[in-house]
Specification:
The complex is a heterodimer of chains A (about 140) and B (about 150). Chain A has a domain of about 80 residues: Hotdog Thioesterase (Thiol Ester Dehydrase, Chain A, Roll), CATH 3.10.129. In chain A, about 25% of the residues lie in helices and about 30% in strands. Chain A contains three helices and five strands; from the N terminus they run E-H-H-H-E-E-E-E. Chain A is elongated and about 55 Å long. Chain B has about 150 residues and is of the alpha+beta class. Chain B is built from four helices and five strands, in the order βααααββββ. In chain B, strands 1-3-4-5-2 form a five-stranded antiparallel β-sheet. In chain B, a hairpin with a 4-residue loop joins strand 3 and strand 4. Chain B starts with 9 loop residues before the first strand and ends with a strand. The chains are: A alpha+beta (about 140), B alpha+beta (about 150). Chains A and B meet through helix 1, helix 3 and strand 2 of A and helix 1, helix 3 and strand 2 of B.
Chain lengths: ~140, ~150
């Protein structure tokens, strides 16, 4: 797919979905090490249960990193200006996350043509896990 | 309840040397397959001086140095009660392997909802590279379930 340009992109355009495999314990262990998030609630079931959770659960920033992939799959990372999310629900083991995005506005930001993209991720049951927005400069 | 006098507290400084091996590990952990994130030749062809750090990677600086978890310890909040509520990044320059990024953070606000059942700790951070260039600003909200 050709990189998007300001003139060809229209409000309402969708980004190609990013579909992830179901969350498993290995994913959480690898992300703990790679991200530096060593909170044991994500990798040690005993700790998770002691804090009232049924089992370990995904790091929020793993979900945000997946949304980052959605964005950089669409436009080069060097064009990403802002990336904001709100974590709306816990991502549990077995959740298969899909990331989606849609162009909602064309605007100028600091003298650059940009688009605002609304993004979200949800599991296979349609439960929303993350909502957010990104500002991307387009040539 | 968390003592509100922590508002404005400077959390400290975290320095992270961006290593190629760590970036490849991060790419694997998030399922990133675009070669520019793992192969220097592909990164160079895309205009980067070395492997670029993916958009959320710089968040690792405060985690690696343990300053963020140490903050909750100081606030008297057990890690088992915290959830990540919000996170934001604004980008000013690329971060690539070989860079050294220093993140400085402060507690911007602390507030509560539902009569104190949920408390929110908002932090803001600035990431600067070895040339003194601000590469990113970050904003985070941590939710404490009381």
């Amino acid at each position: 797919m050709a990189a998007p340009s300001f003139n060809t992109v229209q409000v309402g355009d969708s980004l190609p979905d990013l579909v992830l495999p179901p969350v498993d314990r290995t994913m959480l262990a690898l992300f703990a090490g790679a991200s530096g998030d060593h909170n044991p609630a994500h990798i040690d079931i005993d700790v998770a249960r002691a804090s009232g959770m049924p089992d370990v659960f995904a790091q929020g920033m793993l979900g945000m990193a997946w949304l980052g992939r959605l964005l950089t799959d669409w436009a080069p990372q060097s064009q990403l200006r802002k990336f904001d999310v709100r974590f709306a629900g816990i991502t549990h083991l077995g959740n298969a996350i899909s990331c989606t995005g849609q162009v909602v506005e064309k605007l100028e930001h600091n003298g650059e043509p940009c688009v605002r993209v609304e993004i979200s991720s949800a599991n296979q049951f349609g439960q929303v896990k993350i909502v957010g927005a990104a500002l991307i400069a387009l040539p | 309840m968390i003592d509100r006098t922590w508002i404005g507290h400077q959390i400290g400084r975290s320095t992270l040397v961006i290593e190629r091996g760590r970036l490849r590990f991060f790419a694997k952990a998030i399922g990133e397959t675009n070669p520019i994130y793992v192969d220097e030749t592909a990164a160079a062809a895309a205009g980067y001086t070395d492997l670029p750090a993916p958009p959320t990677f710089v968040f690792a600086a405060e985690l690696d140095s343990n300053t963020m978890f140490a903050l909750f310890d100081q606030l008297g909040v057990p890690l088992g009660k915290v959830l990540h509520g919000e996170q934001g990044f604004e980008y000013f320059a690329p971060v690539v392997a070989g860079d050294t990024v220093t993140v400085t953070s402060r507690v911007k606000d602390i507030y509560d909802k539902r009569g104190g059942a949920l408390e929110f700790v908002e932090t803001e951070s600035t990431a600067v590279n070895q040339r003194g260039e601000t590469v990113a600003q970050m904003r985070g909200v941590t939710v404490v379930r009381n």
